[in-house]
Each structure stands twice: as structure tokens, then as C-alpha cells.
Amino acid sequence: MVKLICSQEISSLCSAVNHIKGGKAFKYFEYRNNGEELIDEISTMSLFNDEPMLIIVSPSFFNVDSESEALPSFLTSTSKGDLELCAKIASSERDIVILCCQKNKTSLNSEAAKIKTEVISKFSNTMKDKIVSDWIKNNSIVISSPTKDLLLSSLPNDALVIENELEKLFLLKFDNKKIDECDVQDSIVASEESNHFRLVEFLLKKERANSIKLYNNLLLKKYDIPSLVSIVSSQLFSLKLLKLAMARGMRGFEIETELGMSSYQQKVNSLLIRDIPAERIDELLANFYLLDYNIKHNLINSNLGMKALLIQ
């Protein structure tokens, strides 16, 4: 079996490795533009061991470089040597999985196109929800709906981190497998996405002390203030659109289609804005847009401007 697995994210590929691996032993080979070495590796393995699966990893797999996050050149090149290399791989009796990032949409050459291809989508909240739901079901975890929502909001969109955090939580509650909000808060490190959401929540509810405290914590983590202003503005705009959509009677799949907001995001966001007047969202959004403009034009100190909005 020869299979090409592509993704835009390193974490998704790592998760794919864990899924494919199961209990098998693996032989890793990192392709570095040496076709003969690659073929020798495949041939040697065929002679001595039929069990391990050979995984060919693009050079950027373990060392992320934005300039190299693309398909390995031998899969796209139309040179005679690379075409012959792909043909030999495709015809091999070895179990081979070619893992690579596919940030740039590049066409496979004619021989590589014969290799079975699987594209892993960019990690999303829907995928995170499925991982957590499967984990709860498979391990007979007892957890309430609000606690599950807290767990989801506290986990980042990173498959490897999620798996590690769930394993840690499982070991913590191994005896009774009943998880409450305190367990989640004590064991799960809040993700960046969760911090952004909490800051927006504090702002909308005018919880000034909590807003300042969280903001100062983010500064200690070396957050970039202009980027934070942009993120908060984007989240406020999404909440504004959701408020308008709900007011017009839109629900569920219609909102997901029109706004690109998953059912989980709808649930969490709708609970947040249920009792928040649309005018409050508009006011904050306008203020953050103005702050963003003033920062970009050097009209205000970014830190002072941000704090001024937090205490309004």
C-alpha cells in the first residue's frame, strides 16, 4: 500500500502518524532530494522486514519553515529522474506513507498522481468536538454538557496538544471517570483562543477588573498588542453578525453555511450575547476599530489605548 497524506498543518500530520501507527513499529526516512538513497532504503527494507511501514517525511515535517511547507519536489517535478522515482514508489510492494505539508497548491506529476492521496483538512472546532466526544464515549467519561463546553473552549486547535491534555485529564480522574468544571480548570492549560474569548466576554459584560487582570497576563506571555486588538475586533465582528443572523431567524446549519460558524461556536457565542444589547457590541467594535487605526498611524500608545478601552 502506497499512500500520500497531505495537510496544511504539522499537528494534523503528527496526529495522522499516531493514527496510522497503532501498535506497529515504524522505520522513518526523511527524503532530502536523494532519489537513489530513497529507493535503496525501500529495497533494503523489503529484503529484511515486511512489518514496519516506511514513512517518507518532507524536510519541513519536524522543522517548520514557512518557505518549505509544500509538497516534496520529487512529487511535482517532471524531470525523468523524479518521474522514474515516483513510478518505482507507486509500484513498490512495501507499505509506504508519504507525509507532507501542502501549503501551496502544487500539481502532482503524472506518476505521483497514481499514488493514493489523502488530504487532511485544516484543524477546526468541529474536528476538536469529534475528538473530545469520541474520547468521552470510548472511556465512559461522565461529564455534563456545560463542563464539556468548558473543556472544548479550553483546548487549542492542535490535535497533539488535545491528545496530551485529554490523557492527562484521564489519568487524573482514572478512578471514578467523573469530570467537573474544577477538574478542567485545574488540569487544562487555557488556550490562546480561550483567552481571546474570555477577554471579549469580560469586555462585553464590563468586568473591568477581570479584563485588566487577563490583559496583564497576556502581556506577560509576550502578546503583541496590535495583533490582540485585531483579534478582539474580529471576534466582536463575528458576534455582531451572529446577533444579526439570530434576529433574522437564522439558526443552525444556515448560520454555519453563511458565517462559517460551527454548531459549537454558535452555542458558546449565542450564550454570551444572549443578554448583551446589540448597541454594546457595536460600541465596542467601533472603539476597537478606532484604536486599531490610531495604533497603525502612531497616534496613540498601544498599551494606554488598550487599557483605556478595558476600563470603559
In short:
Helices cover about 60% and strands about 10% of the residues.
Annotation keywords:
single chain; 312 residues; alpha/beta; 5-stranded parallel β-sheet; two-stranded parallel sheet; 15 helices
Q: Can you offer a commentary on this structure?
A:
It is a single chain. The termini are far apart. The strands form two sheets. The protein has a five-stranded parallel sheet, with helices on both faces. A two-stranded parallel sheet has the order 6-7. The protein has 312 residues and is of the alpha/beta class. α5 (125-138) packs parallel to α7 and α9 packs antiparallel against α10 (208-220). The protein has helices at residues 10-21, 35-48, 73-76, 80-91, 125-138, 145-154, 159-172, 181-187, 192-204, 208-220, 225-247, 252-259, 263-273, 278-296, 302-310; strands at residues 2-7, 26-30, 53-57, 96-101, 116-120, 142-143, 178-179.
Question: Topology of this structure?
Answer:
Blueprint: E1 2-7, H1 10-21, E2 26-30, H2 35-48, E3 53-57, H3 73-76, H4 80-91, E4 96-101, E5 116-120, H5 125-138, E6 142-143, H6 145-154, H7 159-172, E7 178-179, H8 181-187, H9 192-204, H10 208-220, H11 225-247, H12 252-259, H13 263-273, H14 278-296, H15 302-310
Parallel strand pairs: 1-4, 1-5, 2-3, 3-4, 6-7
Helix pairs in contact: 2-4, 5-7, 9-10, 9-11, 11-14, 14-15
